[in-house]
Amino acid sequence: MPQLDTPIRQLIHTFLLLTALVVATPGISQPNPVKAGKVERIKVHGKGLEGNLAGDSPDRDVSVYLPPSYQADSKRHYPVIYFLHGFTDSDDKWYGFTKHWINLPAVMDKTLAEGKTKEFIIVTPNAYNRYFGSMYSNSVTIGNWEDFVAKELVAYMDKNYRTIPQASSRGLAGHSMGGYGTIRIGQKHPEIFSSLYLLSPCCMVPNLNAPNNPERAAKMEGIKTQDELEKADFGMKAAFASAASWSPNPTNAPFYVDLPTKDGQPQPLVMAKWAANAPLATMDQHIGNIKQLHALAFDAGYKDASIAATNKTLDALLTNYQIPHTYEEYDGDHINRIAERIEQKMLPFFTTNLSSEVVKGGKKR
Description:
The protein folds into two domains: 239 residues, Rossmann fold (3-Layer(aba) Sandwich), CATH 3.40.50.1820; 66 residues, no CATH class. The protein is α/β, with parallel strands linked by helices. The strands form three sheets. The chain has an eight-stranded mixed β-sheet with strand order 1-2-4-3-7-8-11-12, with helices on both faces. It contains 13 helices and twelve strands.
C-alpha cells in the first residue's frame, strides 16, 4: 500500500485529534443516540380458546415491547399497557414485523426519547381469526377471547416477565375494535385494569339497521364458503365477525353463526343478542365497576363521524353518573392521527395514571 504524503498524514492526524478533543470536552453537546426498546413475538396458549368451532389455533401470537432499560436493570419491574388492535389488523402490523400505517414500538421509542413518558411493557395479542377479528368476546365459535385477554394473558405476563402484578399498574387500551374491547373488558374487570384509554372505539351501539337492507341481507346470506367470505367487503366481514362473537350457533355449519336475517327475514333474537354486547346498551349495569377505575379517557376524530357521535353519547352517560373521565374530539379520521394521539395523549395518560410502585395488594398509588 503506498505511503501517504506527509501533509496529508498531518491533516488526517489533526482531524482525528480535533474529533477526540470535541468528544472529551465538557460543554460541547453531542447527539444522544435514541435508546430503543426490544420487541419479542411469543406464543401464549389460551385454555379458553381450545376447541373453538372456527378452527383457529389456541396458541396465539403476542407481541411484547420491552422498554430500553429492561435488559440492563434485571431487578426493575414495570407497569404494563395491554393494547388491543383493530378489526382486520394483527399484532405484527402494529409492531413493525409487517409494514403498516403505524409502528407502535417506534412511537414508544420516540416518546421516551423526548421525555414525554415513563417506561412501560406493552402487550398486544393477535386477535385476527377466521372472521378477521375476535371482537374480544366470548363465544363457542371463536373461543373465549374476553377471558383470554383479562385473565390468561395477564397471568402469563405476570409469570414470565418483570411486571408489577397489580391493577394500579395495569392499563388497557385499543384502537377501533380494540377500543371496543377495552371498554367491554375494562368495565367488567376493575380488579385487573385500573385505567382505560379508548382510541376511536367502534361498535359502541347496536347496529339495528343490519336486517333492513334486503339487497345486503341477500348478499350476506349468499356467502357459503370461506373463500367467498375472504372476498367480501369490509362491512360484510364485520357482520360475520359480529355474528361469530355475539350470535354463535354450534349447529349451523360452516360458519357456526346466526346472521341477523334468515331467508330475507329479520331475526329479532339475533339483533337482541348483538344489542346485549353493545357497551352503551349495557353500561348502566356496570357503573359500579366503572366507578372503581382510577382513570378513563377516550377520543376520536370528528371526520370519523359515527364513532365521534357514540363517543359523545358515552361522554354524556358518564357525566350523568358524575364519573370523572377525559373526552376529546379532534381534527382527524379513523387512522390518520392515531400515532400522534398515542404519543401525545395515550402514553402521557398512562404515565400519569399507572403506578410504578410495587405495593402489597396493589391498592395504594
